[in-house]
Specification:
The complex is a heterodimer.
Chain A (H helix, E strand, L loop, with lengths): L29 H22 L6 H41 L4 H15 L3 H11 L3 E4 L2 E4 L2 H27 L2 H9 L4 H31 L11 H11 L4 H35 L1
Antiparallel strand pairs in A: 1-2
Chain B lengths: L15 E10 L2 E11 L4 E5 L6 H8 L7 E6 L2 E2 L7 H7 E4 L11 H11 L5 H14 L15 H13 L5 E5 L7 H16 L3 E5 L3 H7 L2 E6 L2 E6 L1 H4 L6 H10 L1
Parallel strand pairs in B: 3-8, 3-9, 6-7, 7-8
Antiparallel strand pairs in B: 1-2, 1-4, 4-5, 9-10
Helix pairs in contact in B: 3-4, 3-5, 4-5, 5-6
The chains are: A mainly alpha, B alpha/beta.
Chain lengths: 281, 254
């Protein structure tokens, strides 16, 4: 407050306080998540270190098991990507069926969409796990259906229904005048959809579609309930292998949380950015 | 009203013929018995107050709106026939809209080229050549690669005209094509339509541009509340209107 070096201002004077406007936007970045997660792991580690037991520190446990856990996480991502692929292809078909001019097809597609959109994902998963056999025989050829394949199929059902709804909404959002203009140029209905309407929809569909993907990626841990060896299952097994020590609980599951956060948060930010950009246009 | 054309311009059979066309939306009757003829090379203007059914009338001709009763014939095609081949009809009839309705994800040139390539299955190179010629014709050379969003309203409307012409239609329908434009750009679109008319294109226009109608039209129809109140060549229509409603309308707009 006082500056004695130049001889003036020797008395302690209360200077006017300047309010610096904070421009804090609660926007986390990936590195924040990394730091937070790392901090949590380190804190747990140091807390344990002070206890001074002869076992491995939680950090060491995570380092030791990280390759296995990350393999599990890669499996989660693989399931989510595959479910998204199947669900998107089926969902686009279903969405177009809802827009069909044939009333029977339209109503059936609508009913399917509503059913799978309004069913809990976990229940759908259970249904698929227990209704689909562990192997199918096609032309005398036995094709095994491992649990993760069934789980992938189980996740692709709600994806399909949600994608169908996104497609329907996007097509409906294109002004009717585009249809009229295309019809006056003698385009067929199919040509209008594929050449004129859907290309305009892609931009509108991308943000909600990515949103669905982030949800699927996070939902894949539910596969642990039906015994698929994905990250959460492996985390529980690692925890047990390390003697089920209570102090390992938070670091191990924290690691899983961190992995999902680091994967999903960028997708979320990217989606939000795309939404903003398309809104302006 | 049909077939009452003056002898000065009575060539062959009408290219578009409407006989006693009725159209209802629910309980609201929008067209109450419209009959009119358009002969090859003629320019017909339909004028009248808002809500008089002009747009519905023009949309019936290319089957965007199905009629309730009556007959519409376009080049021998029965439009009101339930077994109508809409695509065959629409290849003969071009239409330009008030809001241009260009395809926003395609460039101006692609907008013009799309229908001939995908609908008529014509050779891409030949279509491109023709499309570039059409862009020059509507005075938009150099704008081929612009997207609709980068063009002014008047420019977009001229692309829409070129897009329609690329199908080589026999008749062109214009549905209040200048109504959404600002006054300066109205002129450039009207010049384009006038040139089209001078080239011998058969045109049916719904318009509020009275001076344009007077200069270009061969015949003017005045509609009010779903009926044709009066019609005639511009020389008599604007100076010697018989009906009270027509006179009142003209006194308001002229």
């Amino acid at each position: 407050m006082s500056d004695r070096s130049d001889g003036r201002d020797v008395l302690p004077v209360l200077h006017p306080f300047r309010v610096v406007p904070t421009r804090f936007a609660p926007r986390l970045r990936g590195r924040h998540g990394l730091l937070l997660g790392l901090g949590a792991v380190l804190a747990a580690g140091s807390a344990w270190a002070q206890a001074g037991a002869p076992q491995l520190s939680p950090l060491a446990v995570i380092v030791k098991w990280a390759p296995l856990l990350l393999t599990g996480f890669a499996f989660n991502i693989a399931i989510s990507l595959l479910a998204m692929l199947i669900g998107t292809v089926a969902g686009v078909g279903l969405g177009l069926a809802i827009l069909s001019e044939q009333p029977v097809l339209r109503r059936a597609a609508w009913a399917v969409t509503q059913f799978f959109r309004n069913a809990p994902w976990l229940v759908l998963l259970f249904f698929v796990m227990f209704l689909v056999p562990f192997q199918v025989t096609v032309l005398g050829l036995r094709i095994p259906l491992p649990d993760w394949v069934k789980a992938t199929f189980g996740f692709s059902l709600p994806v399909m229904a949600n994608v169908a709804e996104v497609v329907r909404g996007a097509v409906r959002s294109v002004p009717a005048t585009q249809w009229e203009a295309a019809e006056s140029l003698a385009f067929t209905r199919r040509q209008i959809l594929w050449r004129i309407i859907l290309p305009q929809c892609v931009k509108r569909m991308l943000p909600p579609w990515m949103n669905i993907y982030a949800l699927v990626a996070m939902a894949t841990v539910q596969a642990s309930i039906v015994g698929v060896s994905e990250m959460l299952t492996l985390t529980a097994q690692v925890h047990a292998a390390e003697g089920g020590r209570p102090e390992l609980f938070a670091p191990l599951y924290g690691f899983a949380l961190l992995c999902f956060f680091l994967y999903c948060y960028p997708i979320d930010r990217w989606t939000a950015r795309m939404e903003r950009r398309f809104q302006i246009r | 009203m049909a077939g009452t054309a003056p002898p000065a311009w009575t060539p062959a059979k009408p290219i578009v013929q409407l006989v006693d066309v009725h159209k209802s939306f629910g309980t609201v009757e929008v067209l109450k018995g419209i009959s009119l003829d358009v002969r090859k090379g003629e320019v017909i203007c339909i004028i009248g107050p808002s809500g008089s059914g002009k747009s519905t009338l023009i949309r019936c001709i290319n089957a965007l709106v199905p009629v309730t009763s009556g007959t519409i014939r376009v080049e021998g095609i029965e439009v009101a026939d339930p077994k109508l081949d809409k695509l065959a009809l629409r290849r003969k009839v071009g239409m330009v809209f008030q809001q241009y309705n260009l395809f926003p994800h395609k460039t101006a040139l692609q907008n013009v080229m799309m229908a001939p390539i995908h609908v008529l299955g014509q050779d891409r190179r030949e279509v491109e050549e023709r499309a570039r010629a059409l862009m020059r014709k509507v005075r938009l050379a150099g704008k081929e690669d612009s997207y609709p969003g980068e063009l002014s309203g008047g420019q977009q409307q001229r692309v829409a005209i070129a897009r329609s012409l690329a199908m080589r239609p026999d008749v062109m329908l214009f549905d209040e094509v200048t109504a959404a434009l600002d006054p300066e750009t109205v002129k450039e679109v009207l010049v384009t339509i006038r040139e089209l008319a001078e080239d011998g294109m058969t045109c049916l226009l719904v318009t509020h541009e009275m001076n344009f109608a007077r200069d270009v039209a061969d015949h003017i129809y005045f509609t009010d509340r779903g009926v044709i109140v009066e019609h005639g060549p511009p020389s008599t229509f604007f100076t010697a209107a018989q009906d009270e409603r027509t006179r009142r309308f003209l006194s308001q707009v002229l």
